[in-house]
Task: structure prediction
Amino acid sequence: LKFKATIKMTFFADGICGNVIRPNQPSVVLTEGSSTTLSCTYDGSAYSLHWYRQKPGSKPEFLLLIMKSSKTVVPASPPHPHMAIRLRNNNDVDLEISSAAVSDSALYYCALDSRFSHFKTEHTDIN
Result:
């Protein structure tokens, strides 16, 4: 069974700190049981980076965050054991999904907390 992941090309920026977060790929097609990585790139300063998802008709659900300086990961409660977050090249934040299921279909958001301005978010749609 295949399903498609689409990253919407909306991005957020602030004029004060120059913080922008945006997706790195327009879409991903997944087969159930396969693995994939969703990725966003950010410019400016970041205190922590977050991933959320939103299923149709539901509120956004927190998945994971990573602290930029310490690389400490804070999972959701309860955690999603088939998901991991990592920083790459110091300006990319990845959400790694292993053993993907149709139930992972959702709108995925990456977000940046600069501690200096409003939360920045970006989203990925997995259909």
Residues 6-15 have pLDDT under 50 and may be disordered. The domain at 2-126 is CATH 2.60.40.10 (Immunoglobulin-like). The chain has one domain: 2-126. The two ends are 12 Å apart (CA to CA).
